[in-house]
Amino acid sequence: MKKELSRQQFLRQMALLSGGVTWGLGSFTGKAFGATPYAQAARGKVLVIIQLNGGNDGLNTIIPAEDDNYFTKRPDISIKKEDALPLSNGMYMNPAMASMKSLYDKGLVAITQSVGYANPNRSHFRATDIWNTGSDATTVWDEGWAGRFLEMQYPDYPIQLPKDPMAIQLGSVESLLFQTDVGRVGTVFEDPNLFYQLVSGTLADSELPPATLAGDELAFLKQIASSSVQYSTVIRDAANKAKNAYTYPNTNLAKQLSIVARLVAGGLETPVYLANIGGFDTHANQKTQHANLWKTISEAVSAFQNDMTNQGLADAITVMTFSEFGRRVNQNGTQGTDHGTAAPMLFIGNNVRGGLIGANPSLTNLDSNGDLRYNFDYRQIYSTVLRDHLGLDAFKTQELFKQTFERVPIFKNSPDALPDTLGMEINSPMPNPVTDFTVIQYAVYKPVLDIKITLFDLQGKEIKTLYRGTRTPGTYQLTLNALGLSPGIYLVHMASTSGLSMYKRMLVQ
């Protein structure tokens, strides 16, 4: 359902965009950009997503090279232990990923093992839509999870356009990832200067839409379409303002990441980028083709990480890989693999914990189709990225996915333990320090019979009970009145009869 946009608002915005002559940034006033909420909400973090189109074979990416079942099921395409790059716990990296292994050894790569979802879909198109929208297998959504996030960060869009693009996709085919109920929020191009040349001088469509239902729809189309044109100058200027501080390989993916690096270094405040690499539909002759793909990814990502480090920007950026599904455990008759289920996701950056996350994929405890079972629902991974990297709060994350998902210890500020050992969590009060009132958010991931949230002082004296009762899975909040409390440090403690216990510090001024 689209946002309500009155004709008066639309005409006012059309006037801003066109200036009566052309679509262009020059027609905007400084005031038009004065209140973009992103800087405060997401703290300037950047997420670079690399989509592996075709279905990446996880077992030949992060390899269980000490599991005899792996070689039994893949006699021709398996990778021997002595040829692979050792990680830990009996897992190895594809030998073509030497550049990625170098980052891993520095603690800059986190690998979530066996990511998927219940009742996985094996169609490239439907599975890609699921991963792009954040739905389950039986629900069809037409808005991307990143698009919904950006709508939350820029609530005045499209009435007020931010000064920089909300999202950028390198490529030519627009992704569902950035679709929202008011159209797309991503700007798509392959080269900043060619993009500028394509749209520069484009005349404004100054004809007013008719006062009909169809006219309202046309208003939205004009409004959204204009953003790409007005951002062409911003993108070109940012790309030309900065230079890469590292030499990139001569590959298409490396070119995409080098452009992202220039835009970030050039001052663009765009929070989400999408790059693409295809070729992962490896039904035949997989071994060499798959290795070459990961060599390309590893070298491109390594160059990007080095570039951002050299420019002092690496602390703000995380790279994430995903694919629409993994491949089957058994090789097929043409020395390839067919469409499967779960697969690993990689996270690269200064703020990740580094290392393997989750149990190794079991090659004996398979699902009813003989495929890998997933360790983590992919929406757990997205929820972790949204909350711990992009700064979205628990309530908005639950709203975005229409349910609550336990986070995974990917980032240095993520929960310390795997979800199996948790079941609930409590966040630090906000604001903190507090002078009068503060809000405390907490989440429950499994039905808990008796939760107690209590305020203690540092001497262990119980000051008051803030909540006691039963909660079903979901995200909750309570308001704490700090008026009357003496200045000092207090502990907000959450516990349950199952033995779970955690606390957060609160400073009263």
In angstroms, what is the radius of gyration? Answer: 25 Å
Number of strands: 21
Provide the CATH top-level class of the largest domain: Alpha Beta
Structural class computed from helices and strand pairing: alpha/beta
The percentage helix is: 25-40%
Cα(first) to Cα(last) distance is 44 Å
Unreliable spans? 1-43, 201-206
Mean pLDDT: 86
Largest sheet geometry: 9 strands, mixed
Q: In the CATH classification, which architecture of the largest domain applies?
A: 3-Layer(aba) Sandwich
CATH topology category name of the largest domain: Alkaline Phosphatase, subunit A
Q: How many alpha or pi helices?
A: 12
How many domain regions?
Answer: 2
Q: Note the beta-strand portion.
A: 15-25%
Pfam families: DUF1501, Por_Secre_tail
Domain Secretion system C-terminal sorting: 431-506
InterPro entries: DUF1501, Secre_tail, TAT_signal
Protein name: Secretion system C-terminal sorting domain-containing protein
Description:
The chain is α/β, with parallel strands linked by helices and 509 residues long. The protein has two domains: 365 residues, 3-Layer(aba) Sandwich (Alkaline Phosphatase, subunit A), CATH 3.40.720; 86 residues, Macroglobulin (MG2) domain (Immunoglobulin-like). Strands 1, 5, 6, 9, 10, 11, 12, 13 and 14 form a nine-stranded mixed beta sheet that branches. A four-stranded antiparallel beta sheet has the order 18-17-20-21, with no helix packed on it. A three-stranded antiparallel beta sheet has the order 2-4-3, with no helix packed on it. The N terminus is likely disordered.
